[in-house]
Amino acid sequence: MDDEDDLGPEIPYLSAIGALMYLAYHTQPDISFAVNLLSRFSSYPTQRHWNGIKHLSLFTSKPKDSRLDFPLPPSPPSRPVIGHLHLLLSVLIHKSFQKLSSKYGPFLYLRIFNVFIVLVSSSSIAYEIFKKHDMIVSFRGLLPRHESLLFGSSTFLMAPYGDYWKFMKKLIVSNLLGSQALERSRGIRAKEIEKFYSNLLDK
C-alpha cells in the first residue's frame, strides 16, 4: 500500500488516537505534540499517518524496570505494542468486557499500550478489593504532570491516605468548610455572586 493511500474502515485509526491521547494526558506527556499532530488527520487518515501511529507506539512500550514484579491476574492473549486493545474494539466497550469475563473469568489483567488495567466483574471480588483492601487501592500513584507541576504528594488532593491526609482533611474541614468558617465568609460569597451576575448581565 502506498503511503498516501486512504485507510479503510477496518483500520482502528480513531481508537488508536484516543488511546494515545489518554497516554499523553495521564502517563506520557512527552508524546503530546506527536499525538496532536496525528489527530488532525482523523477525518482522512492515510497509510503514512497509520505508520506514524505505529512508530509512536514504540515509545509507549513497557519499561524494562517495571514495578509490576508481583503475580498478575489471568490475562487473555495480547499483541505486541497495543496489548489487548484489539479485544475491545469489536463491539461496545461494556459488551467487550462482558465477553472477556465470560471467557476468561471475573478477575482479569489487561494492557492497552503501556496502561495496565484490572478488570473485575464479580461483586464478591469487588467487595474484597474496595472494602478489605481499600487502603491499598485508594492511592494510584502520581501522574508525571502532578509530580512536576503540583508539588507531588505534598498537596492535599493528591496525597496518599495516611496521617498527613487525615491532618489536612481535619484542618480544611474545621477552618475552611466548617459551619463557622462558612458563616464568616457569607458576606464575601454574597458579593462575589452579585459581581458574577452583574458581569453576566453586562455580556
Strand content: 5-15%
CA gyration radius, whole angstroms: 23 Å
User: End-to-end span in angstroms?
Assistant: 54 Å
Q: Give the spatial strand order of the biggest sheet.
A: 1-2
Low-confidence stretches: 63-68
How many strands, which pairing sense, and closed or not: the largest β-sheet? 2 strands, antiparallel
Global structural class: mainly alpha
- Assign an overall shape: extended
Mean pLDDT: 77
Q: What is the number of helical segments per DSSP (H or I, 4+ residues)?
A: 10
* Strand element count: 2
Domain count: the total is 3
Which percent bin holds the helix content?
40-55%
Structure in words:
The protein has 203 residues and is mainly α. The protein folds into three domains: 13-60; 68-137, no CATH class; 140-203, no CATH class. The protein is 50% helix and 6% strand. The chain has ten helices and two strands; from the N terminus they run ααααββαααααα. It has helices at residues 13-26, 32-39, 47-57, 93-104, 123-132, 134-137, 144-149, 163-175, 179-184, 186-202; strands at 107-112, 115-120. It has a two-stranded antiparallel ribbon with strand order 1-2. A hairpin with a 2-residue loop joins β1 (107-112) and β2. The protein is extended. It starts with 12 loop residues before the first helix and ends with a helix. 13% of the residues are buried. Mean pLDDT is 77; it is low at 63-68.
Short description:
Helices cover 50% and strands 6% of the residues. The chain is mainly alpha-helical and 203 residues long. It has three domains: 13-60; 68-137, no CATH class; 140-203, no CATH class.
